[in-house]
Amino acid sequence: NLRVAAPILVGAVTLIVGVFAACGGSESAAGSGAESGGVSTETPAALLAEGDDASGISVSGRGVAVAAPDIASLSLGVSTIRDSARQARDDAASLVTELIASLKDNGIAEEDYHTSRFSIDPEIDYRPNGEQIIRGYRVTSILAVKVRDLDRVGEVIDDAVDAVGDPIRVQGITFSIEEIGALQSEARAQAMADARAKAEELAELAGVDLGKPIAISESSGGGPPVFFQGFAAAEADISTPISPGQLEITVAVQVTYAIS
């Protein structure tokens, strides 16, 4: 029995010593980190290079080009209510014919207007007892009109009012730029320059060298259009003032630059 127990005892002592040695090594490693204050001594460049997701510097850039609009888009039309749907339709058709003649007199080309909405709806009175009485039929016919001479927009509206009278409806005006390619190019150049400036500043702060762009994405669009809405109600001797204002064409880019 003594011959068997001795090796077992020695083995147990050896195992305990091994465990303490491992713990001591761990404490020593932890102590060395504490002595350095727990702060990595690696440079920002090394940290950026080692990160799996840090493949470069990603920045956004924005450019804006401003210009006066050259197109006015109007919604002009008529709305009539009569006892019968047929009579309402006939009267609306006659009024739209007068409206189109007014547009042509103001130099609006045939390809610059078209019907954008047409509807025939019953006009219903709802009584307290739940009864529904049809008191007539309303026909609404709206034209989408492009005016290329912005100095004449007010005159076009005024002449439409004179031609149609009270049934006239002016449901909205928006201003736009027909050819925006050159403005988009201008805004795009500004956006890339903006992104480059940001990337250079970040690279300098991080202590790295900025490389070439490795990924670029873009989104673009116009600013909110100048908008006018309302029913025409003007005296004969007062012209309708219309102010086109200015429009913004914006381009936004997202650029990722390589670093070294």
TrEMBL record:
Biological process terms from the Gene Ontology for this record are: DNA damage response
Pfam families for this protein:
SIMPL
Leader sequence residues: none
Name by which UniProt lists this protein? DUF541 domain-containing protein
What is the source species?
marine sediment metagenome
Q: Output the lineage of the source organism.
A: unclassified sequences, metagenomes, ecological metagenomes
